[in-house]
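Section handout 9: paired folding examples.
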Amino acid sequence: MLISKDTPLNEILRLGAHCNRCGKCCEHGSGFVLEHEVKEIAKYLGITEEELIKNYLEETELFNKRVFKLKRVKRENEKTPEIPHGKCVFYDEEKGCLIHSVKPLFCKIVNCKPYSSEVIQWYFLNFILDTEDPEAVRQWATYLKYNEPIVGANLSELIPKDKLDKIMNFELISKVQVEAEKLKEELNSLITRSQSSIIFDKNQNGGAK
C-alpha cells in the first residue's frame, strides 16, 4: 500500500493492527502522546492530568514543538542513569501494555513492519508538524534530507513557493511574523476590495445621472 500524507486514519490503523505483539517496540522505546490523549489516559488510570504528566510523561521537542512522550524506565539490571532506549513505563513483560485500551495513536500504528517509517512520517505530518512555523519547516527540510518523503511530504507540496523561499532564506523567522504577514495580506486585500467597491458605486451613481 502506498502511504501518503492524506492516507485516511482508518487505513493507517489497519496497517498498525498487523503488529505481532512481540513487545520489542515497548521494551526499547515509548510513544508520543497527543494533548487529547493525556485526558483519556488520565481518566482511565483514575488520576488527574497533572499527576499523569508528572509521573508518567516526559516533555520533548519535535519540529520546534513541545510534545509529550510516555516515560521510559530503566530495567532492574541496568546500572547506567541514562535511558535513551528504556522500556515504556506502561509496559509489563507479562501483561503487556497496561493502558492498551487507551494507548496513544502513535503506539497503535507503529510496529516492526517495513512500512513503519512511512507511518511515522504520516503521523508527524498530520499531528506534529506546524507548517505555519518557519523554524518547524526548516527542521522538516533537514529531516527530509535523511528520510525518503512520502507523497505529500515535500515542502513544495506543503507550502506555496514564495512563502517557502522566504522561510528557507530566513526572511520569515517566527510563527508570529508569519501571522503578521498573513494579517497584512488580508488587510491589503480588504482595502483593495473596499476601493474597488467605492469606484464601482461611483460609476453606478454617475451612470444613473
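Moving on to protein 2 of 2.
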Amino acid sequence: MVETGFNLWEFLEYEFKNKKTEFIPASQTKSVPYSKLIDELFSPKDDDSKDSTEILETVAKLGIKAMLCELEDETKATYKYLSVSGSPYSFEHCPEEVKEAMMGMMAVNDLAESSLAGVTAQVQCYGRIGMHAAAAVSDMSRNKFLCRPTTKKEI
C-alpha cells in the first residue's frame, strides 16, 4: 500500500469539527457548518426542520423500497451478485475454492483506470500533452520507479 501521509480520522475531525467558514461575510463571523448541519439533522431546533420530519420518514421509506426493487430486479446485470439470487457469483453461494483462489487478487481494474486518470490529470493541469506520455506519470508513481534504489556499476 502506498503511504500518502493522509489520515482519514484527522481529516474528518478537521472537516466536521474544526474547519470554519465565514457565515456572514460582512460581520466576519465564522462557524463550523458541518457540525451545525449534523446537530440540526439529529437534534432539530429550526421549526421547519421539526415540521419536515414526518414527511422525511415517509419519503425515506419510499426511497428504500424503490432501491430494493431495483436491486432485486432479476433482469438487472448486478442481480447475480446478490446472495438472494442464489448465484455462484454472490459471496454467500461462491464455492470456497474460488474464494481461496481469489485471495490477494485485485477486485477492480484500478491499474487500467489509473493510467486513464493520469492522462486526464495531465491534460487538466497542463492543457496539452501527448496521451502516450501522460499515462507514464501514474505508471511511474504506482510502480515506484523513481523510488527504486540504484547501484553503482563498474565501467
